[in-house]
Amino acid sequence: MDNFIADIADLSAVKAEIVSIELDRPLDWITDVPVDNSKLIFLNKDGDEVNGRLEIYNEYGDTKNDPGVNLSAVDFNGRMSINFSVSGIDGNLKPDADGAYTSDISYAAFDWYPSYWGGGRGTSNVTGDGTYNVYVDLDAPGKGAVVWCVELYNIWKDLIDPEQVKIEIHSITTEI
Fold first, then answer.
1. What is the pTM of this model?
2. Which DSSP state fits 115?
């Protein structure tokens, strides 16, 4: 790679994008939580007709009896990161739609602590079909869940047909 730039005829034609940044850390700090995407549900958050929610598990929701994860296997400390893909947004927005939607995690452990209900840490700006990542740094160990969702704020009101939206979780990564 020495003198790589000197070999480029038109430097203005070169484009670069940082796709990810990863830090070296011992592999035993990270665990992946297995997800059954067929059990996840995209729905209107709390019936407000404004926000969307990907429900992984909700003690008070539609996934109570059939969660997308084995809750007894959820045991972590620190960061929880969710990598997911969305389809069905492109071509499915009303003409006056915002087109950019904040995504965040809502999570409460079995005993309601720790919990996180959004608020700007680790959010992602969903701008259409694509792959996104959200995360939260919890201040105490998380075991199981009472509520566990990926929120898509303000999207429900902009969708022509919410049934067209499909969300797939690729990974849930946690620190142990």
1. 0.81
2. E
Q: Is 66 exposed, middle or buried (0-12, 13-18, 19+ CB in 10 A)?
A: exposed
Per-residue pLDDT reduced to its tens digit, 10-63: 777 777 666 555 555 554 556 788 999 999 999 999 999 999 999 999 999 989
Establish if 112 belongs to a structural domain.
Answer: yes
7 domain residue, yes or no:
no
Taking only the tens place, the pLDDT of each residue in 132-165 is: 999 998 888 888 999 999 999 999 999 999 999 9
Give the separation between CA 49 and CA 53, rounded to whole angstroms: 11
**Residue at 12 is within a domain:** no
Q: In Å, what is the CA distance from 29 to each residue of 26, 70, 82, 110, 175?
A: 6, 20, 16, 22, 5
